[in-house]
Input
Amino acid sequence: MEFSLMTLGSASARPTSSRFPSAHSLTVGGRLFLIDCGEGCQMQMARFKVPFSRLDNIFISHLHGDHVFGLFGLISTLDMTGRLSPLHIYAPDGMKELLDSISEHFGQVKYEIVLHTVRCKEPVTVAEFKNLEIRAFPLRHRIETYGYLFREKEPALNVMKSAVTAHKLSLEEIGTLKRGEDVIRTLSDGTRTVLKCEDLAYRPFEPRSFAYCSDTAPFPKLQEWIKGTDLIYHEATYASDLRALSRTTSHSTSEDAAKVALSAGAKKLVLGHFSSRYRSLDLLLDEARKIFPETFLAQEGMIFDIPEKTSPKKFL
Amino acid sequence: MEFSLMTLGSASARPTSSRFPSAHSLTVGGRLFLIDCGEGCQMQMARFKVPFSRLDNIFISHLHGDHVFGLFGLISTLDMTGRLSPLHIYAPDGMKELLDSISEHFGQVKYEIVLHTVRCKEPVTVAEFKNLEIRAFPLRHRIETYGYLFREKEPALNVMKSAVTAHKLSLEEIGTLKRGEDVIRTLSDGTRTVLKCEDLAYRPFEPRSFAYCSDTAPFPKLQEWIKGTDLIYHEATYASDLRALSRTTSHSTSEDAAKVALSAGAKKLVLGHFSSRYRSLDLLLDEARKIFPETFLAQEGMIFDIPEKTSPKKFL
Output
């Protein structure tokens, strides 16, 4: 199953000739999620063939223009495609008033917009799908801002085929093992035998996860909240030369981002939200890689894939 | 002196992978004007090196999203560049409320936005610069919409150098001729001689003009209002196959646009505002060229130049 992030926009506040404002799409299986929606997001979706028809959920980190100015055009375009199914938008307080004032000026769309106002001081589940759970967690920025953690749900255990044959397991017993419980059989002589789950069942795969962290100044709890995440997108507005500025503007340097990835035990880090003052991003990448080697630069159209992780059948 | 139009966006309501929503820049001498500001306009300006610092005047045809959704990001970016000089926006009624609600959500910018509300039933001058006059005229669309006519002012006449010498013209007499008046000399014997302006002076150049017509259904007065315009940008949302649709949506076909250019006696026509359903625009171009051969397609980054026109020195 696909689990991949695509960068649609890697710029911070001011876009450049090659960098669009913040926007990413995340594909998990057949589901498509949009995370932040900077100006031009819909054009980038068209350019990189992100299917509009599969977009049902948009997650907005905060209400700064470079993260939401693409929303109005996208909402309008989705209306023109004949969309009738609801569009879910997860965003901090204030989004309702913003959308209301836009629709007051430009008219209502024909489909329903279901607004989920995110409000939390600790990580909280904001959306749940069959195989996926999405948690919001607060970031430290100049206005109310949230990060989002996308995590595959813990799968039901699989029972080894060889065990089914060897032990002549009944459907009920297989169900018991799949739930992670041991099977207890009472023999005809009244003695009991235990078929241990850990010997007969295994996790078919390890749940994958992605954390989106933009915009934020660094703070200790962040790495705890996204511990063990496979892929982290973290803003890196500045290199270390502008560390002081990063603090006054509540942003991060690429070193800050790398430290978060290291502490969280992530497998891969994607940097983004680059200040327009950096023509070349080599410095940001170099500084981060000294701390966390598996660091990459977000770049428009680039895809960061999290491959399926099959658990070793360690229980057998 | 430069007088050139650049296409920043050629799409109608729904952008495509290569066409951005409506936006054009017009350069006249050192002045830069933006006409409509669809989503992504600022990225296109950056891409095609349109200098943000020279932008003082924006003309908006109407308040449909595909003509204004780029304004919020652009206004914000101009603020980040440290702009302090006022930005003039010419737009129909409703722009004030729209800008007010955006600044309520995203904060005030540090420079002044001077809003000029356009409201007219006949062509009217809305802005005047040293060498240039800009007139607004109403279009026929679903909401209040205006076109804009940019026209160099009539220059003062030049007096032939040979005439100055031959007639030993005084500064006062030269001034008289420059104003287009004849010089009347009273000789010592009381007789009068007339030095005719048309014999001694000439127009240094013919004023150039550009008319922007989007969005609109065709109507007879339009060609009168833009009579003699050198370059016309006219919307051509559809080819003739969708003429009926063009009427119900208050748009034009490329044939409609060509007829306007022909009737107005234009030198060149640029078609734009293309429906996303047309991958190839050949049909639109072909249909228009049958009526008005000097037709061209707007395409992102393309420049349409109006060369200087020196008048023949016919007065001598």
About this structure: The radius of gyration of chain B is 23 Å. Chain B touches chain A through 34 residues (CB under 8 Å). Residues 121 and 138 of chain B are 6 Å apart (CA to CA). Chain B has eleven helices and 18 strands.
